[in-house]
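Report of the visiting student (M.T.), summer placement. My assignment was to run the structure pipeline on a short list of targets and document each run. The first record concerns Acyl-CoA dehydrogenase.
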Amino acid sequence: MDAGFTPEQDEIRRTLRELLRRNRDAERERAAPHGPDGHDRRLWTGLAAGLGLPGLALPEAYGGVGCSATELALACEETGRTPFPSPLLATGVLVAPLVLALGTDAQRADLLPRIASGRLTAALAVPGARLATALALTGGNRGDWAGGGRAGGVQARRADGGWRLYGEADQVLDGHSADLLVVAAHAGGFARSRTLLFLVPGEAAGVVRVRLTALDPSRPRARVQLRDVPAQLLGEDGADVPGALAAVGNTAAAALAAESVGAADGILARTVEHVGRREQFGRPIGSFQAVKHRLADVYVQVQAARSAAYYAAWATARAEPVGGLALAQALQALRVAAAEGIQLHGGLGFTWEHEAHLYFKRAAGDELLFGPVHRLRDHAAGSAGLFEGEVAV
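After the run finished, the structure tokens were exported:
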């Protein structure tokens, strides 16, 4: 493994950091998550046109940049520093690779160029609050999480030569505003029980979307109800949907780990800057040994998480399922960095006017959506067979 970055990778990081810095507007950033889109659409389309951000890991044949998961992870690290509300995670990290892996030639040609250009946003709708299970991050995803033939979840049935969906998906990331929904549904009853993915326009008749109150406003979520909605099957009926979801989950975990590292690094930098300015007893509080020790511990955790995230992004090309472990490490580092940041900012860190609390909400919200940390580690340990053959005492 070559731990160095190529000039192209360094350029992606530098360019994106500069674009985000130049377009930063604190007032607009605070208002964007509460708007109808949940993000700044003008900034998003600008990043899509100027840097090809949503199509960074898509092939050039579909209008993408043609980079790998490593470049996507580096981009996510930069967007995490602010933290930046955007449809990158839902559209570019979760849905786009699913369409690329499972879609027919016609579906890829229709959807991927629009995703790469930023003209189409998408969301992955999973029954219940089971996104981490569907992506095989906290458990096996070949069970009945999509409905299992019983009441609940989302059910798919054949009708009039097509498919119709009925059910509900909760905690859908960007589900309230996405132009396209990729819905995981159960089909076949007990005889041919299987999970399939379907394409549903966000404004289709019978789709009811309700935006939910989220701990982290920069990660807007929605409850999506499907009331006998016509849908188009993504790919073929015999496709290995759980396998595709697990592969996407591994890559998404690596990208999300890098984003969490960027956020942890962002709050750490702000905290270091603050303790260098804030004075107590006639000297900066950053000169106190206790403060130095606390920040040094945070720094060590952030660097360890960064190493894990970079390795996970590199390992995706070799199908090594280490994304969940890297995500656990990064989420823990972000949680610690955000908590220390709030404490070392004093009362200022708890106010709405300061950014410190946004990082803490990002850490807690992502752990609720993709974790928690102990389940990520438990599933990784079980998959690796670390505790097989142990004798109970």
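Strands lie at 122-125, 154-159, 162-173, 180-187, 194-201, 207-212, 221-233, 279-280, 283-284. The radius of gyration is 21 Å. I thank the supervising group for their guidance throughout the placement.
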